[in-house]
Amino acid sequence: MAATKKDIRALTKEQLREFFEKQGDKAFRGNQVYEWLWQKGAHSFEDMTNVSKETRQMLEDNFVINHIKVDTMQRSNDGTVKNAVRLHDGLIVESVLIPTATRTTACVSSQVGCSLDCRFCATARLKRMRNLNPDEIYDQVVAIDNESKLYFNRPLSNIVFMGMGEPLMNYNNVIKAIDKITSPEGLGMSPKRITVSTSGVPKMIKKMADDDVKFNLAVSLHSAIDEVRTTIMPFNETFPLEDLREALEYWYAKTKRKISYEYVVWKGINDTQKDIDAFVKFCKYVPCKVNIIEYNPIDDGEFQQASNEALENYISHLEKNRIVVNVRRSRGKDIDAACGQLANKS
Ligand code: SAH
């Protein structure tokens, strides 16, 4: 019986209103229930106290509320919180709360596992099991917003789609989730505070530009030399840098918004002057800023963080060319919550 019930949160507000009308009730009841589901975060029909008992029973007979459940929560010495989130079918994804002095950032997952094969990333080893639904993405954000209020006395300020999965391979659901996050009927957050990070799927970057999205775009570049990038991110063979460049130029022409490049420097992989020169050149195609990310080891040493000297060399060349560079220290390493470490180990 339960298996045939529909997830009520897959319905739009309009569909909920129509459902009530068909039941001979007032369409307005749909608004009330919608508010319970999305603004008040009700986990059961029982919670909907301004809805009559009969109506609640009727909803119970027709629908389920497929909420995520935070299974385990770990807190790092540096304040970072990692949630292992159980989905209605028992699968698990992870999301992370990253506090700084002035902001709280949620790092959320878009897929269970990942279909890409970046050789330095723990999530890639899980393979892609399924896409997350819009409400499963939204719920991760709500859970972290609540934790932020509880532990840091402030609401969530930023969201990055840098958890498990490739958001542009689950584009429609990511967009629906962001619509809900930014809508006044959801969390009412500004899209300017949301960043979608991609390994670089050119066709989808162009689609985003055409869709006139208002959030920020980050691209995990890691190398601006095709041969090198293909070794560490094999899908670069299918989506080479030239295609990526063209898509990014298209994005900038349409949105006029800077792109962020995520970049890790590894010993013996991309730490030579040739790598730096190629990156600086790539950075000039489209207005951008650079985030150098510290490498978080996931295995027995195939990849190693480059020397400080190599990092300094990157930074000085970028800065000489007037490119803004931030160096991002890892957060939550002690609980495997840092970039690329999300792999359901706990
Ligand atoms: N698929 C998306 C989002 C997930 S990864 C993307 O590729 O952008 C989030 C960021 O962490 C990416 O920049 C990714 O390249 C980086 N990353 C992956 N594994 C890492 C590791 N072991 N150490 C540091 N950064 C890593």
From TrEMBL:
Free-text cofactor note:
Binds 1 [4Fe-4S] cluster. The cluster is coordinated with 3 cysteines and an exchangeable S-adenosyl-L-methionine.
Q: Where does S-adenosyl-L-methionine bind?
A: 165-166, 197, 220-222, 296
| Needed cofactors | [4Fe-4S] cluster
Q: Does Methyltransferase appear among the keywords?
A: yes
**Enzyme Commission (EC) number:** 2.1.1.192
Family (UniProt): Belongs to the radical SAM superfamily. RlmN family.
The name this protein goes by in its record:
Probable dual-specificity RNA methyltransferase RlmN
Species of the source: Mariniflexile gromovii
The coding gene here is rlmN
